[in-house]
Specification:
- This protein has one domain: Single Sheet (N-terminal domain of TfIIb), CATH 2.20.25.
- The chain contains 1 helix and 6 strands; from the N terminus they run ββββββα.
- With 72 residues, it is mainly beta.
- Helices cover 11% and strands 33% of the residues.
- A hairpin with a 6-residue loop joins strand 3 and strand 4.
Length: 72
């Protein structure tokens, strides 16, 4: 099963950064270097606040452009 992406807010500098739910390496804040996520072998443990989740969308046979044309 594919994973999702989360927007995580750094507890030190409040920078928001997108992190893969199943991160396999330690993820540090791009601004201050604080560790945001630690790998666990499955879903990562976050040290910052998760402020948003972007769900993985299964690809369909129709593209967004095809659906927009049909909607007209």
């Amino acid at each position: 099963m594919p994973g999702s992406f989360h927007t995580v807010r750094c507890p030190d500098c409040e920078n928001e950064q997108t992190v893969f739910e199943k991160a396999s390496t330690e993820v540090s804040c791009a601004v201050c270097g604080h560790t945001l996520a630690r790998p666990t072998g499955g879903k990562a443990n976050y040290e910052g606040e998760v402020v948003d989740t972007v769900e993985h969308r299964e690809s369909s046979s129709k593209s967004d452009a095809d659906e927009a044309v049909e909607a007209r």
